[in-house]
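Before relying on records like the one below, remember that each one covers exactly one chain. Contacts with other chains, cofactors or solvent are not represented anywhere in the record.
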Amino acid sequence: MDAGVFRLNHGSDVYVVRSCCNEDGADLLALGGEHSVEVFQINTTSLKRLATFHIGSRITALAWSPRSTSPTRSDDWIFEIAAASADFGLHLLTKKASDAESMFPFGGGLSGHHGKINDICFCGGRNEDIIRYVASVSDDKMLMVWDLNPTLDICSGVPSPVRSPRGDDSSSSSPLPRPQPTAYAIAFSHPLTTVNSHPSSSKEFLVSDCRGSVFVTDWRTDPEQTEQGSWRHSIVVELNESRALSDSLTATTSQWSGFAAWRRDSADIVGASYGPRFSIWDLSKLRGGKPLHTGTSFPEGGHSFRWCSTNPDYFAISAHSNTRGAVIHVHNVGYLQAQPSVINVAPRPHYIRDFDFVALHGQPVLAVAFGHQVAVFPLGDD
């Protein structure tokens, strides 16, 4: 399928854009707004709304469950999404072909995060754990791995609300309460910004902090069986962006942030954006944790870093401020010294809140959120 160039006026600010990378859900797109999560199907001319989940708080992160399937691939389709909200809550959102939308809240209170949840992802690997475990990272310096199907039955006490497709309560019913997910927490030294899993491993997460460090973390390691017996037990590899670390230590930057991502076709390749620079690491050539390649993207600071899921030679970085408008730079790993392709999505004062590569096969497609609008277009078509 080749997507055309089109825009959706959402009606309110869109903060999170997340494409479904599953082979059976490649045309699905989730948008996180001021108070809800909406699921859309991408076709050649438009976005078709398929489900709406009303959370009641601004969405800060989204992750598609690996079992999500599009209606174009199966009559027995299902959407399942983990969502984080601005009130530090987590929610498991489910919509099946034969059922209304279902929302299961978890992770709140004393057992959950106590800072903004910046990113969330399902477990990697290829066994049943990929739909059982969800990892979240927060400004509270914690990586938390949630078991959605715990053997310990701690009932949430709050039934999952179900919304009728017509928006009324005439056909709604409350499912039986399910056990409240349990969490395994790993503390870090600084606020955490992103977390990734990789299809090749069910025991590791890629975690980045705001100061210039990226960690490959083995969350299944038992600290009691290690000499340190502390959070350091779980760090398999630590990568460093030296300029970002230096700036944070000398306080030469007023805004600390970072965004790291695993390349889906290779567990050895990691990319990140810190300030005005991007970095590429090859874990098979560690070089003391220093990047294999570095470059400048936006002198005033970059933000989100995304690998293209269908053509892994491409990655893109969005601008962090509105001084240039809503702009994305697209890089090719084969020509890192060349100037990036510059995509001007919208003029000032717009800026990009989030973007993602759509998993549709063929020409790489971007979905970009700025203000109330979401633009979907193939690379090469502005």
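The first strand starts at residue 6 and ends at 9.
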